Amino acid sequence: MKTKFLLLFTTLLPLSLLDSAIPLLDTLSSLNNEMVINNLTPEELRANPSDIYTINVEVSPMCADINKDSLKTFIVIDGKTHPMQKSPSKSHNYSYDFKMPSGSNAARYYVYVDYTTTILKEKKERSLKSKLFDIHLINRYPSVLDVSRGPVGSLITISGRGFTKSDTIIFNQKEAETFYVSENIINFKVPALPGDQSYPVNLKGNKGLLPVGDFKIDSGNIVTDHSIIALKSREKTTIAFEIENAAPFGGLELDVTTNVPESVVMPEIFIPAGSKRATVVIEGARPSHGELYVSAIGFKELTIPFTIAP
To answer: How confident is the model at residue 91, as a pLDDT?
Structure first.
């Protein structure tokens, strides 16, 4: 007598055991990725005034036996079961808006999907349950830079939540001049660093660093009240230099060089912190024609032609 067999996951079962094979199929289907539940919700969520947090999952049928219209997705959270809403734009995505109980800052949940399959012309009810997930609320975070670029000395605002008076801004591993405004606003001045480059910005607190974003320093301009300098030998004049924004903490040193060093005499130029302007006295020396080159970290070079007459 011949015995017929059903091929099931590379296991041969006699047809006489078909009734017991179906429960086996129910057990193996979840393990065989018949349906996949992918959690799209981060474990850490930023606290908000409404205390409502959206939990998103992706439910993906993985075989043709599933009756896709039969899918029903539920979330079990805070001891209660709630249906999840299907996304109108993404057919496999489901969401639920969870109201965090007063006084709580964490929750644990899981998701399950009820659906049916049709195997060997027989419809079967199935259910797939996810693992347990957690969400934790973050009450302190930098949210956004109000702008992402600017010159040295610019006053930049960061909005967020949970700022304290002891917080400081770290700009490319260098502490920037920081101004606490409120729990939701903190300001800093862009420090003197080379221009036309982007730098990481971090918020430093008692528990370490929190990333804020990247900031690009645009090269600033140095201006003067002399477009050209004309002096006689041993004659003196006062020249003013100015920058767009107040110099950051520590001040700003202007580096002055010339292609005819024996023709002019002038001291170092320094713009104090919080100031935009500095003046210096320049004296003519050996008669000649040349140029002064004025530069500073984070600024474009300024060229001033000069003539020293006998």
So the answer is: 76
Q: Which CATH number applies to 142-217? A: 2.60.40.10
Give the domain 33-138 fold.
Answer: Immunoglobulin-like (2.60.40)
Q: Tens digit of pLDDT for each residue in 137-158? A: 988 888 789 999 999 999 999 9
DSSP 174-237: EEEPEEE--SSEEEEEPPS--SSEEEEEEEEETTEEEEEEEEEEPPB-EEES-SSEEEETT-EE
Assigned architecture for domain 222-309:
Sandwich (2.60)
Question: Of the candidates 61, 71, 70, 65, which has an alpha carbon nearest to the alpha carbon of residue 118?
Answer: 65
Q: Please give the structure tokens belonging to residue 137.
A: 């609320």
Domain regions of the chain by residue span? 33-138, 142-217, 222-309
pTM passes above 0.70: no
